Amino acid sequence: MAIWRLYPVVAPSDSAWLGRPIWEEVIVRADTAGMARVVASKLEYPKREGGVGNESHSFNSGLDNERLYWIKKLSAEEAARFDDSPGNPAVLSATPLGSESEHA
């Protein structure tokens, strides 16, 4: 399975962010770039316990927006730094903008 890197390409001050979190880098294991965006967007899903009646929650992550984040498939050498074994699609590393630490 391929390893993908999502990174922002819009200035943090741009209004296109609409108050969404900005990630400096998100590393994802997935079969395709599209699936990598879907997996990465789960980082921003709101934590909700159940619902009321038949309500549905609308959700729009910045990580699935091609104008905010570009995506690049990592080379085998780059990918080995994050993951050297096969597995299910997953976020391997996520660094919020302005943070030195990684969260997975």
From TrEMBL:
Segments for region (Disordered): 79-104
Protein name: Uncharacterized protein
Provenance organism: Fodinicurvata halophila
